[in-house]
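Q:
My hope is that you can spare some time for a protein that puzzles me. I hope you can help me see how the letters and the tokens relate. Thank you; the sequence and its tokens follow:
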Amino acid sequence: MPFPIKASSHGKSWQFTAPIAGPSLLEFLQSQEIPIRSSCMGKGVCHQCRVRVTKGLAAVSGADKKFFSESHLKQGWRLSCQVRPKAAIEVEFPQLYLLQEDLTLLRQPVGEWWLALDAGTTGLELAAVDDEGPWCQIKAVNRQITMGADVMTRLEYAQKQGAEPLRKRLFQQLNRLADLIIKQGDGTPFSGKLWVAGNSVMSSFLANLNIEGLAVSPYEPESLNPEVINTDRFEIHSLPLLHSFVGGDLWAGLFVLWQKGEMNRPGWILTDVGTNSEILFWTGQKLLVSSTPAGPAFEGSNISIGMRAEAGAVINPLFVVESAKWSFGVIQDDVPRGICGSALIQMIDEAVRHGLVASDGEVLKPENLRIQGDLVLSQADVREFQLAKSAIRSGLEMVMRVGEVAPNRLFLAGSFGENLPVDSAYRLGLLPRLEVATLGNSSLAGTIAWGQASSKDRRDFTEWVNQVKTPVELALMDEFQEVFIQNM
């Protein structure tokens, strides 16, 4: 028999009718597009989908007992992935993904225009471009995020539910974002062209490619050169992929460096630190191409108090010795709701420097890792950071070994790289001590440049890449595991 489910969070509320008992509360609300945080696909281990049951019954699961204190359980706290409601229930969520769009009108367009898209796993950034350059940009959280926080959980979702729900969600959002830009266009014509750069999974979704090959060994996309795809609204031109998990986003970043003449100054590494950290090393003779799965810790997932760099995220945490408390800022001066990736790095660096955490990652003074209220960095959070840190550093080291040339510069791509606390990253061993330069969103910048380039320039660049690129398969290197353990 159908029964009502009511959910609320930070002043917003939703009312639904559940047709049958069976799915978990998390599964049901995600099917209704409620942006609940969950990075473990309902396994009960990330603890991000916690709710407080304010009315109705919800049995206490084993996962609940492991995570919540007895007093919290009595207050109604549960993991929504463990709750299987059979009758009317009301719940409150302390955290949801913020799904608002951030639109910037740079100027009015001149004549016909087209779109460039940076299709990230967690975020989308769309730019409208005319003959004079970008005239409008919009940022938004990728709404696929409720179907998986990172590339691997999204592939897992696709294996169970099929890729079509993910693809449908993505195109619904693209249509919405395009509508918002068109409203700013003052009637100027949209050509329908959409140039896209993204990681291998996002590019495969947009190019309507089969993603099964990316989910199982040897982890290969259906194609490294997606064909032009026509939809009812868009003519989609996807930038080529460099390798299995090195996508069009790094192709775009590489094109930016090509245009800057950096190929004439070899000995640099380009990396995008993230869930799947992509690495390029230009030695002067070879372009080494690799990637290392770091997990979503730096994007706010798999960290008990983690969140994206959005309103309410703690930034710039500093440990004040005199008071044994933390000083910090909060994005948009909002109520502190969690900690973003750059702040996580800075906080652990501070904790190690002040003896709260040992150099091997053991928490020595857990009572001093409370930022405020319920925002407490745990031992499990520190271990999650260590895994991500070691994956990235080990990947960089192995690629440098293969290169047999000492690199002199490190280019950081992406918004996270732009905000990464470099000194903390040096001290913690996340990055080698090379000269660092940030490129910002080189994926979007490179996609715009690619769309503006002549067909000859695109052809010359593609031929050069194909001549010099050399894949580096970290998983096949015997010493990688040893290096990984050393870098923990």
In short: The domain at 102-238 is CATH 3.30.420.480 (Nucleotidyltransferase; domain 5). The chain has four domains: 3-92, 102-238, 249-296+386-486, 305-377.
